[in-house]
Amino acid sequence: MTGGIQAIEYLRDNGRLDAPRYRSLLETEDCATCSFLRSEARKVADSVFGPRVFIRGLIEISSHCRNNCLYCGLRAGNSGLKRYRLSAEEVLECCRKGYEAGFRTFVLQGGEDPALDDDLLESLVRSVKSGFPDCAVTLSLGERSKESYRRLKAAGADRYLLRHETYDPAHYSRLHPSPMSRESRLGCLASLKECGYQTGTGFMVGSPWQTVDNIVEDILFIEEFHPEMIGIGPFIHHGATPFADMPDGSVEMTCRLISIFRLMNPRALIPATTALASLEPEGRRKGIQAGANVVMPNLSPEGRRKYYSIYEGKAFSGAEGAEGLAALRNELNAIGCDIAIDRGDYDDKRKYC
Q: Per-residue pLDDT tens for 6-37?
């Protein structure tokens, strides 16, 4: 039995490894070890959820952003991007169509738009919860004050997604200009936990200047933070950013990390991201076979989707769009999985409802 397989079995049985063994799993080129990692992760996912993949309806509510993150096409410095904001009526119409299609979780995502103040968002969340009381609302709207998070939670928001992007402060500063900081991002994550959200974090795989040591630090942070949701996807460049000429991340490494996180936290909600499908036609399938259990088809108005341009080549139609659920179901059925239309709430008793 190889050391890699022993490490995988230890991670499966104990939910943690030390840094050297995480590094060895990231660096191994042994095909048997990689195959065993994927198969064990999928077995663990099936043991908790069955062969089910939860669908979340993604609604991109604003492409405006005050930040200038060096990797993101929504950055404030991208003057060539056509910006938009959805009205409350448009958001509710997206939810209505999604509900009729079977969605029971809506993910409201946007840039850090100053126009999305607490009063507006509080009203929007209350409207969604009032109109669709059996649905979960997930927010992904960046860094806000703890009071803002508290108000939105009181209005009915259930979950919040906020990637930490990198745990290393020096690496963080190479991806984000001042005044953004790793400390601020981690503080927001702590606030979200304190406010009672099901909290998600994660990072880009293959972001510029990322090292294996950076990834090991990210793994150890997530191991300690124990989020309910873990979102990782490959870095994909955008031509209107300073990273336009940087190489894209790796589907294979992203899937390897999905497997590691599945073994670390069997109950986590882990998406096979749109970035995986954008970088490689079989990317989403590979993510699910590696242990992912969530996909997020796009519910945004079809005419607006191309303007939510975080990276180039983003997939937003076909099986990536909410109107393509039949294609998505066929894709999942081909690998022995099916769509789960329920909320899929994280539960410490290992039950999902």
A: 999 999 999 999 999 999 999 999 999 999 99
